[in-house]
Write a sequence for this structure.
């Protein structure tokens, strides 16, 4: 049943992104209750399908386009937590919000939704306190790889603390060095991407050790002149309070595991 619940919620998001508000309406139970996050302009809760859809339409009308980008799905019994990024454009400045929604599904429809700014608090409401931090750290690192592969600098920087550090000092390439803060990180990623026509990172597992996540990977790189090169390395991420604070590059997996105390 839990996988079915995930698919019900996923269908609602896909309908939203397609602009099919009739389909969005159909995923809700007639007596649905939606609680917005703390400090939302409309305090809520919104009770009943009509009230919820009025809020949805009001939100959509404030922008020319908007989209929900799921980051992760976590299910437990009749509930599904979806961490996502909502983006809106038009009618003024562009908007981008990262938020987690916890859905309760009953008899094939969404019966209750509660939104949280804090992903860990959202998981705690599902009784997943012990899982929350470790799962969250891996998801943040996975989101980093996804944003990096699609060259989405805005999302990439949003995953980092403002004073985060990229330690590329073990690199044999021209970008060898240490980069601190968003400004230096932005320079690093732009220079990295400009070097290659395309770079796709393939991950080979995620190993957690406290606040650190070790990720062996292969970078599939295509040069400006069409030359393709593969390079293996291991990256070690430090994640604190739901943000990446440090990224270290190691040429050998054993060296990375030793650095985090796993060997």
């Amino acid at each position: 049943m839990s996988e079915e619940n995930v698919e019900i919620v996923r269908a609602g998001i896909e309908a939203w992104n397609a602009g099919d508000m009739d389909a969005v309406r159909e995923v809700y139970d007639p007596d649905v209750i939606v609680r917005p996050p703390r400090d939302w302009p409309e305090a809520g809760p919104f009770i009943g399908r009509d009230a919820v859809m009025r809020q949805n339409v009001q939100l959509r009308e404030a922008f020319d386009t908007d989209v929900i980008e799921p980051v992760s799905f976590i299910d437990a019994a009749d509930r599904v937590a979806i961490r996502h990024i909502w983006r809106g454009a038009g009618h003024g400045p562009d908007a981008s919000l990262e938020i987690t929604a916890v859905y309760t599904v009953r008899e094939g429809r969404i019966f209750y939704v509660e939104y949280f700014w804090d992903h860990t608090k959202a998981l705690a409401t599902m009784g997943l306190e012990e899982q929350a931090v470790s799962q969250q750290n891996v998801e943040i690192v996975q989101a980093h790889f996804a944003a990096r592969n699609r060259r989405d600098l805005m999302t990439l920087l949003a995953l980092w603390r403002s004073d985060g550090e990229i330690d590329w000092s073990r690199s044999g390439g021209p970008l060898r060095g240490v980069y601190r803060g968003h400004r230096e990180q932005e320079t690093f990623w732009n220079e990295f991407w400009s070097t290659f026509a395309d770079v796709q990172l393939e991950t080979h597992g995620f190993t957690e050790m406290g606040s650190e996540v070790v990720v062996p990977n292969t970078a599939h790189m295509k040069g400006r002149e069409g030359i393709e090169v593969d390079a293996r390395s291991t990256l070690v991420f430090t994640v604190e309070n739901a943000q990446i604070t440090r990224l270290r590059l190691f040429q050998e997996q054993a060296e990375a595991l030793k650095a985090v105390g796993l060997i």
Observations:
- The longest helix spans residues 129-149.
- The chain has two domains: 2-127, 132-259.
- The longest strand covers residues 228-240.
- The two ends are 40 Å apart (CA to CA).
